Amino acid sequence: MTDSLLQPAPAWAIQQWFNTDQPLSLEALRGKVVVLEAFQMLCPGCVSHGLPQALRVHQTFAASEVAVIGLHTVFEHHDAMTPTALAAFLHEYRIPFPVGVDQPDGHGGIPHTMRAYAMRGTPTLVLIDAAGNLRHQHFGSVADLTLGAQIAALVLEAREAASVAATAGPAQAAQGCASGACPVDTK
């Protein structure tokens, strides 16, 4: 199932990062489309569909335009899915993109980021546009063609926004077309 959205994406609450030298944030990824793959390493759908699809996205789209991020969001079997076990899992499955461990709630319940995004389970794939807005959220499997089309549309949207920003006059650049209408600079 997919939900089409347009609202600011919530910040991530990450306990630990893998496959990156520094913590990542949505603010640091502005200007790129973000593909967030929420998974659990003991989830059959995640292992057979979600993570392989995220890997294909990572291999297909330019890293300068699309950031693929894994979110290990454990809401069951907490004792088996530790960060140590996750490190081995990421190595064995050759997952090269950054993966954050969702901050546990401290009571064995739904982790913070999973709750903030109102995820219903795993795998969940979230698309965030280059401006930091939540655009699509898929629970379960999503067809590669559907996902590719959605990502491509967001990449084109980001390119157009960057082009407009690059050619905007000083008044437009300062205003940022915040009103939703970008006036032509006739000077």
From TrEMBL:
> Under the GO molecular function aspect, what terms does this record hold?
antioxidant activity; oxidoreductase activity
Give the superkingdom in one word: Bacteria
- Pfam families assigned: AhpC-TSA
Domain Thioredoxin, first and last residues per copy:
3-164
In terms of InterPro entries, this protein maps to: AhpC/TSA (IPR000866), Thioredoxin-like_sf (IPR036249), Thioredoxin_domain (IPR013766), Thioredoxin_ResA/DsbE_sf (IPR050553)
Organism whose genome encodes this protein? Cupriavidus pauculus
The name of this protein is TlpA family protein disulfide reductase
